[in-house]
Write a structure and sequence with these properties.
The chain has 186 residues and is an alpha/beta fold. Helices cover 22% and strands 23% of the residues. It is built from four helices and eight strands. The chain has a four-stranded parallel beta sheet. The longest helix has 13 residues. The relative contact order is 0.12.
């Protein structure tokens, strides 16, 4: 992250040598502890001083006796939640996709768990019907919030030429991505 984004800095603190800094900068609530195994993700921009703390073990998951690193999503979701500059995940509807009825932003039908994963990672999750609306104007900033992804989750009907052009224009913008999930038999 530090190599990719100039506004992110990594700093290692020593519990003994940096005790005053830790005490002065990380107000703890009852029951919370900063230990040598604590990872702090902090935002000090725009006069703000917000942070999230994790235990080192929060960055790993064990499943079937195999340990998986989950740090990428922990870091990303913390950075996004602290920045208030969240990227957007657009779920396309209007082609028989499994995202629930049009206009119902709460119901993502079969795509619910997938939409929840995006939300857990700090994305703002929205539906879009490309036959009726276009994507918002391009964000010229280099911020994380300028990024977005469009998800086609099980479309069953063809896209019009105009919709394909809207998708093509969106994907060609900086920091945007397209994810397509389809049943190969359809």
């Amino acid at each position: 992250y530090e190599k990719e984004f100039p506004f992110i800095k990594v700093k290692q603190l020593d519990m003994n040598e940096d005790a005053d800094y830790i005490r002065d900068n990380f107000t703890l609530t009852i029951g919370s502890v900063i230990s040598p195994l604590t990872v702090v993700i902090e935002n000090r921009s725009n006069g703000l001083k917000n942070y999230r703390t994790y235990n080192r073990d929060d960055f790993f998951t064990i499943s079937n006796d195999v340990m998986y690193f989950r740090g990428d999503d922990r870091f990303t979701s913390s950075i996004l939640s602290l920045s208030g500059d969240n990227p957007v995940a657009y779920f396309v509807e209007g082609h028989g996709e499994n995202v629930g009825p049009a206009g119902d932003e709460e119901n993502f039908a079969d795509a619910s768990r997938f939409a929840e994963l995006f939300a857990e990672l700090g994305y703002v999750v929205k539906k879009i019907d490309l036959s009726e609306e276009d994507f918002p104007a391009e964000d010229d900033s280099d911020s994380i919030g300028g990024a977005a992804v469009v998800v086609l989750y099980g479309p069953k009907n063809d896209f019009t030429g105009e919709e394909v052009n809207r998708l093509r224009e969106f994907v060609n913008r900086k920091n945007n991505n397209l994810m397509v999930f389809m049943d190969p038999g359809v």
